[in-house]
Design brief:
By secondary structure, this protein is of the alpha+beta class. The protein has five helices and nine strands; from the N terminus they run E-H-H-E-E-H-E-E-H-E-H-E-E-E.
């Protein structure tokens, strides 16, 4: 379950992180077209459950209203000294948190229990390569702080996505969409 941001925002963000991408950081960068905000990760799901999942998606979407969010501030999980993921933050607006909660509630009866950790809305920009040494990220905090990016958009849909792993990263396809009421 994800929110796909407008193409212009993703391309602008991709351009804004050019200096990071051009650095020698051992990171596998997410392509601009694959950047999205995950509301709920479902894992491997049988194709014959598509209709059931699409119905749950519609239920969650109808229970939520469009919400305006700001994408800004870059960071790293768990932190810049030992990163695993580089991200762009998404403002934790109450309407976005309610949407994520509606998704959790709609999918719980289908065997997808609510996430055990707090919702931290973000767009994944890159994942650190396995075996990367901490020394490679000595200047990461400074590099992240130099990137100036801020855009505000209104979210009016939520998507059920299919992820297919490929050599160049995952390929994402929208399977079903629900309009926020």
């Amino acid at each position: 379950m994800a929110i796909n941001f407008p193409e212009t925002l993703r391309q602008d963000l991709w351009s804004a992180i050019e200096t990071l991408r051009a650095s020698a950081l051992p990171v596998r960068w997410v392509k601009a077209e694959a950047m999205h905000l995950t509301l709920k990760f479902l894992g491997a799901v049988a194709a014959d459950r598509h209709d059931q999942l699409a119905d749950a998606l519609q239920h969650a979407a109808r229970a939520s209203r469009p919400v305006t969010v700001t994408v800004a501030e870059l960071g790293a999980f768990p932190d810049a000294r030992r990163p695993r993921v580089l991200w762009a933050g998404v403002s934790p607006e109450p309407g976005l948190e309610l949407l994520q909660h509606q998704v959790e509630q709609a999918f719980a009866p289908l065997g997808f229990p609510p996430e055990g950790r707090p919702f931290r809305p973000h767009l994944t920009l890159g994942r650190v390569e396995r075996g990367a040494r901490a020394a490679a990220f000595r200047d990461l905090e400074d590099l992240l702080g130099r990137v100036a990016f801020e855009q505000t958009v209104t979210i009016d849909a939520v998507d059920l996505m299919r992820s297919t792993p490929t050599r160049g990263g995952s390929d994402y396809q929208t399977v079903s969409s629900g309009r926020l009421s």
